[in-house]
Amino acid sequence: MHIDLINLQRKGDERGGLIVLENSKEIPFEIKRVYYIFETLPGIRRGFHAHINLKQLLICVSGSCKILLDDGSEKRTIKLDNNHTGLIVHQYIWHEMFDFSQDCVLLALANDFYNENDYIRNYNEFIKIVSQINIL
Ligand code: T46
User: Fold this and answer.
1) pLDDT per residue over 76-99, tens digit each?
2) pTM metric for this prediction
């Protein structure tokens, strides 16, 4: 599985850090929605779904967490532990987020509005769908 990591350029100076995220420049898609996940309790695992159309960029702007990516045939775990690396989560990738540090703030930039119908939340259904896609 190809892992799409984006190295974001730090534009800060002696006063401190600054990182810019612009539509279709640093981010390879149009941003329609931004949300962030924070104060996740110890031992909690979130996600457990894949998206049908949604593409997202995840950046750990504070602290660290791990992301499990699963394309139905391979699983990879990526640790996000800095504010200048973005991980693209493509469509039809099952993902789970875990090992959140207490100070973790996980920022998500998404190419569409929230739509519960875009979620595949059942793992068996996910496997069925991706194996059908791979056959076609
Ligand atoms: C994803 C991972 C990385 C909304 O009402 N609007 C929103 O834009 C979002 C993202 C969530 N919600 C509601 C739906 C649930 O009632 O907030 C609640 C928590 O969402 P969820 O259980 O889906 O959260 P995670 O952390 O499991 O997943 C989230 C995103 O939903 C998902 O798209 O890829 O983060």
Assistant:
1) 999 999 999 999 999 999 999 999
2) 0.96
Q: Which of 15, 99, 114, 29 is nearest to 64 (CA)?
A: 99
Supply the Cα-derived Rg of the chain in whole angstroms. Answer: 15
> Ligand 1: distance of its center to the CA of 13 in Å?
35
CB 58 within 8 A of CB 82: no
Look up 90 and say whether it is catalytic: no
Lookup: tokens for 97: 């987020």
DSSP, residue by residue, 1-51 = ----EEEPPB--BTTB--B---TTTTSSS---EEEEEE-PPTT--EEEEEE
Instruction: Report whether residue 47 contacts ligand 1, using a CB cutoff of 6 Å.
Output: yes
Kindly give the distance from the C-alpha atom of residue 108 to the centroid of ligand 1, in angstroms, as a whole number.
10
